[in-house]
Sequence to fold (329 residues):
Amino acid sequence: MPHAVSFQQVSRHFGAVRAVDAVDLEIAPGEFFAMLGPSGSGKTTCLRLIAGFEQPTSGHIEIFGETVEGVPPYRRNVNTVFQDYALFPHLNVADNVAYGQMIRGVGKAERARNAEAALEMVKLPGYGSRKPGQLSGGQRQRVALARALVNKPKVLLLDEPLGALDLKLREQMQEELKVLQKALGITFVFVTHDQSEALSMADRIAVFNEGRIMQTGTPEEIYRRPKTRFVADFVGSSNVLPPKVTQQLGGPAEWSSLRPEDVRLDAVSGHEARVTGASFLGSATRVTLDVAGEKLNVLLPSGLAVPEQGASVRFSWKPDDLHLMGTDA
Ligand code: ATP
Fold:
């Protein structure tokens, strides 16, 4: 079975800007794949290259084994859900959902049936006659999703689709999208700069920085075994320790990553440090330590005593939790 999406050494330059720089990428059929990275790292450009809204400056792209060079967006078996939903305000919900099918010449009765089925999929049955202006942000987002799903694409591209929703709704939609994706078996390629969203939803994540993929792996791999300082810091804000400090903590002279939730303060033995601050986060308190001039964040579960600023404390961790990343990470 060919890959759902494959990039071979794909670049897209805009003048001097290397928006996408020699990217190799393979997405499996039926996979929920997240592209994660800071603003400007090239995620959206990658998505647009898959959709056909952009052409590569160099390199080769295949979708389900077919070369897509020169194939226009509407001929690719791919649909996009945009962050701003891009709904037509003057058309009602059913006509918005059925719009693509109307352009393709699908008959009126069939269009209406397909639109209602798609609205049912996104839990908006019976909303067809409303205008987008009469819906909440979350409902508009569902309509945009229904409009993309009605065409039964083999690959669904989602560009920060939950970006405009409040936290609660966002978490609910994350759950629903995941369930929907597994039920439909469609390959999802999801762009986000929110690491917790990528970790909770994706089967695999590609972490982007400056037009390149820094690491690809399962959420667990990316979180537990980051290969570089950038990945360790961007995904879950780890403590990234320089070789000198790793050595002081008993490790080899390599860059290392130590997750704040893996550091314990209740140890009677362990390394000594000074408390420089504490902030209450709700489910935990983040305590900041000074360790040989380096800042070390510790996540203290709520309910445990929080040490005073300036206090001298001891800290420890399990050997496996100090993740080594080599000398040039
Ligand atoms: P965001 O999360 O902010 O959407 P992103 O990771 O999706 O960021 P891209 O939109 O892919 O990043 O942009 C990558 C780089 O390419 C940026 O520096 C951007 O300014 C540049 N870029 C993107 N599109 C164009 C364009 N049409 N013309 C010129 N530069 C562009």
User: Anything to note?
Assistant: The chain has a mean pLDDT of 92. The longest helix spans residues 167-184.
